[in-house]
């Protein structure tokens, strides 16, 4: 411990005691203390506007007051906190309300599985179920996909660096071009169908296709509604199950509760996590069409599938979806973000930026290095913004969906200052 004393650097404890694997704390190097709505405070009293929202786990903002109240009340009443997958009142309320508020009004019929509390747990359960039900092994995924860090999910993830972390071959998966991957004028579905139908392609018929309707980590790549519909038809034609990974894009991020609602497709299996717990508490669900629910009791298991504190806040979060008002508010804010990003792209033509995204998942794709520099400068100005894309080439705007106009405007003012600074930095040296 002697190496801990004498040094006063505020992140010293983390550097000395926590693994090198930590990442976000390197991009945002301060010690946070409290948070509310779209704001965070550090121990030095600096205030940050949050345009990152816990990577999509904080769609309803930090410490959402109604959820906090429900949580405090549940805790004071000695509500069960941990229950494996035993029946509890808190879980019953969540299941009932999820069915009434989310599934029924959308004419959806899904069984709900609690696969363990993380997104990657949900993805693993979906892949296992698809393989079990079809008796086939291969899963089709897409270029630039991100599905999580456990082996099954990594096998369907595109990123080379993350895949290499596995240390073993990642197999029983095949990566196909996402919408737009082969250029604007090429329909990748035709390309994919050739592989699926041709017995000489070397690709055996997949059990399922797993897709993000908008690839968040992969660079904010939006699949068109026509492509998604075509993908669904392709799945039906060849008897492949359609899995939508809505871990990050679900819970309103793209404007509707499920990200696939804009396309009208009906996935066989849906993975959700991140904001499903509402408060930033760990929780995940896997939705499956009832006829696919062929699990044997305990065949997929996990100690933390009964996080009742998350069930309490998740139930409270569903209140946002009782009317169309929340969706309308998201749409209005999404327009505002689009306008602000277009303004920046036009006002700084040298930036050569390309708008990406829909809903409150938008950003600008930039020449390599610029997005990371903007993120760095933004942090110095009290704005939390992350990058995405294989080469961190996209600067991402994903605030809590509950952010108000004042917060959006203040954030964009800082954002534009950063863009301005990056432009003057890159203007100075002679370009090679
Ligand atoms: C974050 C994410 C995951 C993994 O979720 P974890 O909770 O980090 O395991 C899977 N899929 C998508 C699309 C994600 O954004």
Automatic annotation (TrEMBL):
Q: Which UniProt keywords apply?
A: Aminotransferase, Pyridoxal phosphate, Transferase
Gene3D superfamilies (alphabetical): Aspartate Aminotransferase, domain 1 (3.90.1150.10), Type I PLP-dependent aspartate aminotransferase-like (Major domain) (3.40.640.10)
- This entry's Enzyme Commission designation comes to 2.6.1.76
GO MF terms here are: diaminobutyrate-2-oxoglutarate transaminase activity
The cofactor required is: pyridoxal 5'-phosphate
Pathways involved: Amine and polyamine biosynthesis; ectoine biosynthesis; L-ectoine from L-aspartate 4-semialdehyde: step 1/3
Top EC group: transferase
Q: Does the keyword RNA-binding apply?
A: no
Pfam families documented for this protein: Aminotran_3 (PF00202)
Please give the SUPFAM superfamilies that the UniProt record associates with this protein.
PLP-dependent transferases (SSF53383)
Family according to the record: Belongs to the class-III pyridoxal-phosphate-dependent aminotransferase family.
**Protein name in the entry:** Diaminobutyrate--2-oxoglutarate transaminase
Organism, as annotated: Paenibacillus septentrionalis
Top-down, what is the taxonomic lineage of the species of origin? Bacteria, Bacillati, Bacillota, Bacilli, Bacillales
Q: Tell me the name of the encoding gene.
A: ectB
